């Protein structure tokens, strides 16, 4: 951008209103971190007599799409009409892309329907627009109707499923793509592995990894980081560590993936040791003045570190790291960090101080982390029967993503664990009023909660256990066990069951497990965990041994 500024300061640059130069500057601004300047620059040159052409508007509309400013985009759309280039395919595609990015899908569809000629860019643009507003059915219809679908189209549709919390459909599409003999690119691999991570499908994730090895494909930093995340979420942080150690040049995203993998899904002590390694490398780089090799921890790093301290009950160390965030690294604590500290305080028995910590969070603090990480942090916390902390977090998540079904399910589970069945009913009514759609497997999970609620109200403990297993058995054909176990929310469901049992005083050894095979018990083990391996500490997940003694 410094060279661009030098060129713009030279008056002779735009002598004779040379269109090529002006279009190049607009494109440079559109690709920069200051896309707004593209629109400002365009209208400045327009006043000086510049005559735009069909090459002017695609980067200009791209700049408007980046900023999300409808007013600027519509002014530029007016310029398209005024200059008679509204029939040019590339310009029409840019308009579809702009309106789709701004979530004005009706306007995007109007432009799309009026196009006399369409290419794969046109179809991908309108499909992406529908995915952005959550219209997966329409997007899939467009995907299936495409005369010719390129790799970008497959990636767009898979990403849409992934972003809409449908990793299963994402992987199904990935398998369909492979069956057609289509070779994906790095983006495809990252999408597929991420879907495996979010649904804890380690078998499929290993299959993708194996294909990469078989093809002798070099793992770049992005793919390696995604694989680390996948193995960690599936409870195999040690495999993630092998990949991590093979990366020659690591960035902070890579370090965070491994640190969080240990701290949340694996051994917290290993995570803290890895964080110490990060600081040691930073100090060595500083002493040797290797600027390029310095990697500084960021706010995500400290979420993992503080979460590890909370899991291990390391109060002194946790307070030290929390203080170092701002004092040493200049990182302003967010809601996530305060919440981790509250979790730590609660786990060492300082419940009142934990509540005060959350009450005193600065107003400007927010939820900067992606909701999937928040769900993991929330599911790893146990605050006894005081649900205010978890309730506060989930409500913030709902404000952040009001159409996400799983956030409401988290809230239902929290209320159910505390025996607040009226709030369970109120939350479900709120979901109904807001039009929150539920997938078949989510209907199944809420059905289990309903049965548990009804039985709990009747005070019959043994029947509550039997109802859960009866539901598991009666739905086994429609919802295969290996599919259900992939849902991380299963841990929450079974965790609330343990909590309800514990609330009766002691975990009674009920003889209800007779007739179940070893495979079923193994899979039931999986469902009680946030990932397909029991790697968390027993204190964290409650009376694990008592459950297995049933």
Total beta-strand segments: 0
Describe the global form: globular
Q: Find the structural class using helix and strand composition.
A: mainly alpha
Terminus-to-terminus distance: 67 Å
Count every helix, treating DSSP H or I runs of 4 or more residues as helices.
32
Describe the sheet with the most strands.
none
Low-confidence runs:
439-550
Radius of gyration based on Cα positions: 27 Å
The proportion of residues forming helix, as a percent range, comes to 55-70%
Query: What is the typical, i.e. mean, pLDDT?
Result: 74
Bin the strand percentage: under 5%
InterPro entries: E_motif, PPR_At4g14850-like_plant, PPR_rpt, TPR-like_helical_dom_sf
Protein name: Pentatricopeptide repeat-containing protein
Organism: Solanum bulbocastanum (Wild potato)
Keywords: Repeat
Structural account:
The chain has 550 residues and is mostly helical. Among the domains are: 1-117, no CATH class; 185-248, no CATH class; 403-550. It is 69% helix and 0% strand. It contains 32 helices and no strands. It has helices spanning 2-8, 19-31, 36-47, 57-67, 70-82, 89-101, 105-113, 120-132, 136-145, 151-163, 167-179, 186-198, 202-214, 221-233, 237-246, 252-265, 268-287, 299-312, 315-327, 335-347, 351-359, 371-379, 388-400, 405-417, 421-433, 440-458, 461-474, 481-484, 489-502, 518-527, 538-541, 544-548. Helix 2 (19-31) runs parallel beside helix 4 (57-67) and helix 12 (186-198) runs antiparallel to helix 13 (202-214). The radius of gyration is 27 Å and the shape is globular. It starts with a helix and ends with a helix. Mean pLDDT is 74; it is low at 439-550. One of its GO terms (biological process) is RNA modification.
């Amino acid at each position: 951008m410094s060279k661009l500024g030098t060129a713009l300061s030279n008056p002779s640059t735009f002598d004779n209103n040379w269109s090529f130069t002006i279009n190049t500057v607009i494109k440079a601004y559109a690709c920069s971190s200051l896309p707004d300047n593209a629109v400002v620059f365009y209208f400045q040159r327009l006043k000086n007599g510049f005559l735009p052409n069909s090459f002017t508007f695609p980067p200009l509309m791209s700049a408007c799409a980046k900023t999300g400013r409808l007013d600027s985009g519509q002014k530029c759309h007016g310029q398209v009409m005024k200059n008679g280039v509204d029939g040019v395919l590339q310009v029409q595609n840019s308009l579809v892309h702009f309106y789709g990015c701004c979530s004005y899908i009706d306007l995007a569809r109007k432009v799309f329907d009026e196009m006399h000629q369409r290419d794969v860019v046109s179809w991908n643009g309108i499909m992406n627009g529908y995915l952005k507003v959550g219209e997966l059915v329409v997007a899939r219809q467009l995907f299936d109707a495409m005369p010719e679908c390129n790799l970008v189209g497959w990636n767009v549709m898979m990403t849409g499923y992934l972003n809409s919390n449908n990793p299963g459909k994402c992987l199904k599409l990935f398998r369909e793509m492979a069956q057609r003999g289509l070779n994906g690119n790095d983006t495809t691999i990252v999408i597929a592995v991420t879907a495996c991570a979010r649904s804890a499908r380690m078998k499929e994730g290993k299959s993708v990894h194996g294909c990469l090895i078989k093809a002798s494909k070099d793992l770049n930093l992005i793919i390696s980081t995604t694989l680390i995340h996948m193995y960690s979420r599936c409870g195999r942080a040690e495999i993630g560590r092998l990949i991590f150690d093979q990366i020659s040049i690591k960035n902070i995203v890579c370090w965070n993936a491994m640190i969080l993998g240990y701290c949340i899904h694996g051994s917290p002590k290993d995570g803290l040791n890895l964080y110490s390694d990060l600081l040691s490398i930073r100090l060595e780089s500083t002493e040797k003045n290797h600027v390029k090799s310095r990697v500084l921890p960021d706010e995500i790093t400290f979420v993992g570190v503080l979460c590890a301290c909370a899991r291990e009950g390391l109060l002194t160390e946790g307070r030290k790291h929390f203080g170092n965030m701002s004092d040493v690294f200049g990182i302003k604590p967010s809601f996530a960090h305060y919440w981790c500290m509250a979790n730590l305080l609660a786990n060492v028995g300082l419940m009142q101080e934990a509540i005060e910590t959350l009450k005193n969070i600065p107003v400007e603090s927010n939820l900067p982390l992606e909701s999937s990480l928040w769900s993991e942090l929330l599911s790893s916390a146990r605050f006894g029967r005081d649900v205010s902390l978890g309730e506060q977090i989930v409500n913030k998540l709902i404000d952040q993503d009001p159409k996400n079904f799983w956030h409401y399910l988290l809230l239902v589970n929290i209320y159910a664990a505390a025996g607040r069945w009226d709030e369970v009913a109120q939350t479900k009514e709120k979901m109904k009023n807001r039009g929150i759609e539920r997938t078949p497997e989510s209907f199944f999970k809420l059905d289990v909660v309903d049965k548990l609620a009804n039985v709990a109200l009747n005070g019959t403990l043994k029947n509550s256990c039997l109802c859960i297993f009866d539901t598991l058995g009666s739905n086994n054909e429609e919802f295969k066990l290996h599919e259900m176990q992939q849902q991380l929310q299963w841990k929450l469901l079974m965790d609330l069951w343990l909590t309800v049992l514990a609330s009766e005083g002691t975990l009674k050894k009920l003889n209800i497990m007779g007739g179940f095979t070893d495979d079923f018990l193994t899979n039931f083990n999986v469902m009680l965990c946030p990932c397909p391996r029991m790697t968390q500490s027993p204190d964290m997940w409650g009376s694990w041994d008592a459950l297995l003694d049933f």
